[in-house]
Amino acid sequence: xxxxxxxxxxxxxxxxxxxxxxxxxxxxxxxxxxxxxxxxxxxxxxxxxxxxxxxxxxxxxxxxxxxxxxxxxxxxxxxxxxxxxxxxxxxxxxxxxxxxxxxxxxxxxxxxxxxxxxxxxxxxxxxxxxxxxxxxxxxxxxxxxxxxxxxxxxxxxxxxxxxxxxx
Length: 167
Prior knowledge:
Elements lengths: L1 H18 L8 H8 L4 H10 L1 H16 L3 H11 L4 H12 L6 H6 L7 H4 L9 H20 L3 H15 L1
Helix pairs in contact: 2-5, 4-5, 4-6, 5-6, 9-10
């Protein structure tokens, strides 16, 4: 009977330890693995409440997408699924800023739950005009290359960006 009690206590302790796993937001594979376990709304809330961590995650998503890392796009999608308006906007902008670098990856975000309208925009608030102009020039060049190869999302994205820019 005593051995059975010890085994139960050990099993309970192991289960408690596995559910209190430390969230590693720096390692994308570890982060995505953690998000695949669920409770993403709570995870997002915890990250957003720690502003330095939130900004670091957004920067990692932006950098990852710009460098073609699909894992960071998947992380963004999992967080986007449970986000509110403010965090959705930040996630949309972080992913959209990859358009001049990896437009195919950014556009594949539509298949993960991102809206084409939200990705094909000017992803800045109060940024200097030269930064906006450089972004638009780079993004439209890459999107036009994709559109010429028959990518319908790229063509639509270019139209959306042009509309946003002229409005």
